Amino acid sequence: MWLVRSSLKSQEPSEAWTVPFERNASDRSCHNERPHEALDMKCPVEVYKASTRPYRGISELSYPFHDRTVLVTCCGRICIFRKKINLSTSLAGQSVGIKEVDEGIWLVSFMNDDLGYIDLEEKTLQPLNNPFGPRV
Predict the structure, then answer these.
(1) Exposed, middle or buried: residue 71 (CB in 10 Å: 0-12, 13-18, 19+)?
(2) Quick one: which of 67, 106, 120, 133 has the fewest CB in 10 Å?
């Protein structure tokens, strides 16, 4: 065991690890030098035009037809009525709208899409059918 540890400490980083990083740095020139068939054999830098409109991000989300607006935590949960319900980490930091549709049943929406229903007793989100999923 002692021999394995000492031999690992003495090893230098191999060239095999450094070559891909150097190659990636030089690949940036492919936009300036290498023509692409999809662009009629032009380089991407010849075709690309920067947008004239500045990006301002997403405006503050509001849900006027919902009972509450709740912020999703960094771990993907919403906390309502001292209960923690998991939504998704992809919504972390975003506001979602919740609306009570029945006793203890809440509809959760993000922007214009309804995500599903929360049952406060079960502390679970029951997702709605995915409109973009496969149709059988």
Answers:
(1) middle
(2) 133
pLDDT digits (tens, 9 = 90+) for 114-129: 999 999 888 888 888 8
CA atoms 128, 131, 132, 136: torsion sign: positive
CA distance 125 to 76: 12
Question: Model confidence at 21, in pLDDT bands (50, 70, 90)?
Answer: very low
Burial call 51-70: b when 16+ CB within 10 Å, e when fewer? eeeeeeeeeeeebeebeeeb
Query: What's the full length of the chain, in residues?
Result: 136
Say if residues 66 and 78 touch (Cβ distance below 8 Å): no
pTM of the model: 0.57
68: enclosing H helix or E strand? strand 68-71
Residue 16: the pLDDT is 46
